[in-house]
Design goal:
- With 426 residues, the chain is mainly alpha-helical.
- The protein has a single domain (16-33, 40-425), classed as Proton glutamate symport protein, CATH 1.10.3860.
- It has 19 helices and two strands.
- The chain has helices spanning 2-13, 16-34, 42-70, 78-103, 113-139, 142-150, 159-162, 167-184, 189-210, 213-228, 231-261, 266-272, 274-283, 286-301, 305-318, 321-337, 344-359, 367-378, 386-416; strands at residues 419-420, 423-424.
- Strands 1-2 form a two-stranded antiparallel sheet.
- A hairpin with a 2-residue loop joins β1 and β2 (423-424).
- α2 runs parallel beside α10 (213-228).
- The N and C termini lie far apart (69 Å).
- The structure holds aspartic acid.
- Aspartic acid binds at residues 284-286, 320, 323, 361, 363-368, 397, 400-401, 404.
Length: 426
Amino acid sequence: MNLLSSLLGKWQQLPLYVRTLTGMTLGAIAGVLMGKEAVVFEKPCGAMMGLVQMLAAPVAFFAIVHALTGARIEKGKSARLIRLLITNTVVAIIIGMSVANLIAPGERRGLSEKERAQVAEQAEINAAQISTAMASAEKSKPVDKIFQLLEKLPRTVLGPFTSSDQVIGVIILALLLGLALRKISPDIEVTRTTVKVFMDAFITMLHWIVQLVPLIVFGVVAKEVGINGFSSFISLLWLVVAVLLALSLQFIYYMTRVALQSWVTPRQLIRGCREALVMAFSTASSTATMPVTYECLITNVKVSKSSANLGALVGANFNNDGTALYEAMAALFIAQLIGMHLDVTAQLTIVLCAVAASVGAAGIPSAGLITMTLVLTAVGLPLEYSLLLIPIDWFLDRFRTMINVCGDLCVSCVLDGKRKHGELFD
Ligand code: ASP
């Protein structure tokens, strides 16, 4: 008994990624040994994923209300900040969707002819099931499609929380509540503290559930290897390549924007903020990195306090472009994997939901994976495929967190403008 608890204690002390890698390796071995028997892991993994999904809506909800009630935005700068945040996120999603369509990682599976025929057959069954629900959308006129999006507006206050495909409803409610709280009690600290207590409680639960990830990875990998062999891992590797490429393009976009619209040069920025970027990579948490990001901007890069405050402290709550890009790509990947055709309405829904879900993604490890369930259900993609992403999520999380932090750096520098303390730097 003592030995068991000391072993468990040692296991818990290992960093999460080491435990996840161990789960992955043991899962692959179990899959090879058990073959089709490994299907026994399917139900428990689905149930654990259900727990993750349960927290998605409330975490997103409180993250947005908290961001809105906590933000102290100087008058006059808010419109600029909002414009900047929206353009950056839209660019991120366009990059993500274009790369995902171009590389089509979900279609790259190293399958034999026979396996390919089986997958195609299964894909047809999946697509037929899903498209019955969306069939009317396929046939309708563009104007009807807009009305279908309008149908996603909430009709009851609790409705969006009871159905997992209601992400837009959750976001709208959160925005309305956040704005209402600002209006009725702009200076009351109590409001902020209360919202923060709820947000922290849900994030604590999230931390607990994230501890299950190594176990889920074990089951998912065992089942996948046991039943389909290693073929779907080939497409996962392609997804890793595609996401890294898209994140690099987003990084180039940020640097170009800084070079064109700020007195700070990209080189000064990266040099001055190295520490924040390394911390983002190693913690996979943009929230934990936030104070370092702020400090680097003020002390090393020397942008003005108000710009660093808006970009790195206020913006950081809303600005998760790396996460938005990843969620849109993951949704397309799963659609490709099951051979489901996504029409304009579905792609537009993905864009909207990815923006919304990234706003609601708390800056903590794996938050993107959790809010992604909202994007998938919104377009009727089967949730069980998101399990497949778990083995690679911890790795991609580090890169998208770095991009989330780069987004905050970019916004701070652009807000600082072409003039440093009144002097023009060209
Ligand atoms: N880990 C990311 C962050 O902290 C969020 C995510 O999972 O995408 O910014």
